[in-house]
Amino acid sequence: MTAMLSLKGLRKTFNPDTVNEVRALQGVNLEVSDGSFVQLLGMNGSGKSTLLNAVAGSFFVDRGSIELNGADITRWPEHRRAKLIGRVFQNPFSGTSPNLSIAENFALAARRGEFRGLGWALNRSLMKELRDRIATLRMGLEDRLDNAIGSLSGGQRQALTLLMATWRKPKLLLLDEHTAALDPKSADQVIQLTEEVVKREKLTALMVTHSMQQAVSLGDRIVMLHRGQVAHDFSGPAKSRLRPEDLVDRFHEIRRRELLDERAAELLRNSYA
Amino acid sequence: MTLLLGALTIGLILSLLAMGVMISFRIFSVPDITTDGSITLGAAVAATLIVNGVDPVTATLVATVAGFVAGATTGVLHTQFKIDALLSGILVMTALYSINLRVMGRSNIPLLSNRTLGSMVSDFGTAVFGSERINLLGWMVSPADLALLLAALIAAAVAAVIVLWFFRTEVGTAMRATGDNAQMVRALGANVELYRIFGLATANGLIALSGALFAQYQGFADAQMGIGMVVWGLASVIIGEALTGGTRSLGLTLVGAIFGSVLFRLLVAIALRWGLNPNDLKLITAVFVFAALVLPGLAGRLRRGLAVK
Description:
The structure holds two protein chains of two kinds. By secondary structure, chain A is α/β, with parallel strands linked by helices. Chain A is built from nine helices and ten strands. In chain A, 38% of the residues lie in helices and 23% in strands. In chain A, the strands form two sheets. Chain A has a six-stranded mixed beta sheet with strand order 6-7-8-3-9-10. Chain A has a four-stranded antiparallel beta sheet with strand order 2-1-4-5, covered by helices on one side. In chain A, helix 6 (184-201) links the parallel strand 7 and strand 8. In chain A, helix 5 runs parallel beside helix 6 (184-201). Chain B is mainly alpha-helical. Chain B is 77% helix and 4% strand. Chain B has helices spanning 2-27, 34-51, 56-80, 85-104, 117-129, 143-166, 170-180, 182-187, 192-218, 229-243, 250-273, 281-308, and strands at 108-110, 134-136, 139-141, 220-222. Chains A and B meet through helix 2 and helix 3 of A and helix 7 and helix 8 of B.
């Protein structure tokens, strides 16, 4: 298996040299092979979302390199990376343009990363394809293609965003807690859809989640981040044996170690300062 | 009757301004004050070229390009130098005040003795319909005035069709999404900064065109003519939205902006006729836009308040 995505020594510090300094990524090394579906876990502030945004190009990393599909994209601007990367955000409002119709939103997605010219955005063949593929969501949205996407529910919008992100097969799909803002029923629906599309299109995907259940049941690999570094990495049989409780244990272990660290630091401070 | 025709014609010419403001304010969500400078720039460039013997059509085109450049400058300040959009517009508008005076060489250029698009259309009207006043639905109107009105209508319609077509193309649709959700447009691989620059440039190109036509219609360009025009454009857009009932359809919104501009000009003409002091016009326009921006929200709160009780 060749590596589709290769991250080497990624470092990112926000607001350096100020009181708000945040060392979000502190040397992340990660190789993701073609067709692998990776679950990213970690506590708040562990750098999961930062890692995803670094790959997507929302900002440039301070150090390290990002290689995707054999190309060094470390210095590519966000819109250029979009040719290779499909994204679904945590906020259902982030992935769609509310005042544009469903069809127009998909017209944009259909040209992700391509040159946009002066041809009509909507044409008959696209509309037909749209109707067929949106019908597979079984949400009845195929008859509402001219409605503003802003009039739909969060779950519907997230399902559409997922379909938009994968309309043209991306080299890498980034899912940033894309069900966290949804009600449980919609979340299940979107997760099921995610599984379907990743499997059918054989996508390489990185998914950030807070749900141990999701992490265990989805994908073929779990990567746990802690303090901007990879703390655990389970794949193959180790991943399939994992239960949610095991993951919780790992978290407790990390937390315990951290408390010890702090106690040690306290001790040192007391004896030397 | 001449008064009514004049008001309609000016309303139609300024509907190009309204469309420009609609593009920057509604599509790109930028309240672009460059407008005040670029409408004058359009008038100044066109008038200066015309008095120097350039033919009016070329002069009008050059004026439009000048507005495009002014808008692009605002866009570059905003996107490349990360200056707040409002401040970028203020900077360019202020700079344009001096530039306009430089272009004109004085604060006012009369065009009454020159061949302009306005005089060409009037002459054409006289040539076709004769110089006698003609009876239009019981009104006696001069053929020249009628020809001017028709020409302004055609100009507004052509501009509206082009704007409508453009914002339905692949690139235009992506631009509409930019004002709506820039993050998404970036994630779908479009250069949002470039779009913003182009959008502001196009808006100001239209606005300068409006200024060039306005100067040729009224027969002079003046360094002060742009003051408050962005608010004027906003008023037209808001009236247009009220007329079309807050529709999402781009075509209707454009038609609304044209009707809004014409209706607003008519209301002003009537108010002036009734003895409104022209000096109060800007104040009244500003209060009107304030009310139009605030009232819908206030009405909603009032309704909810009543519902709670």
